[in-house]
Amino acid sequence: MNHAPGETTIEQHRAGLKAAIRILQAWGIEGPDQARILNIDQALVDAPETLDTTDQSQLTTISYLLNIHASLKELFQNPENHSGFMMSINQNPPYYGQRPLDFVLTGKLEAIKEVFESLELLKYGQ
Description:
- This protein has 7 helices and no strands.
- With about 130 residues, it is mainly α.
- It has one domain (about 10-125).
- The radius of gyration is 15 Å and the shape is globular.
- This is Antitoxin Xre/MbcA/ParS-like toxin-binding domain-containing protein.
């Protein structure tokens, strides 16, 4: 089966979902919250290999989570800081006394995007 350039397959979507679930687990986020954040049924959190369809919002959320994880790995040498940053209260914008994890826990795409963008600014010293 041939795919158009830039087209992703369901196998790639499953791999992304599995990675996003592992990342959320590393941040201490449990199944029901994982399902809400990813906008999927709990059954898919428990068996991501059964994924048969995704919508653009789900793919975008997965992409942001993977990119947040990658940014944390670039910013912090110590793996404990990857989850530590997400779980720590941060006084800087856009958090103002909240944890980056609190933004992710809202399950709102715009809030997850804010975490990603704040890490990109931090990464590039802005």
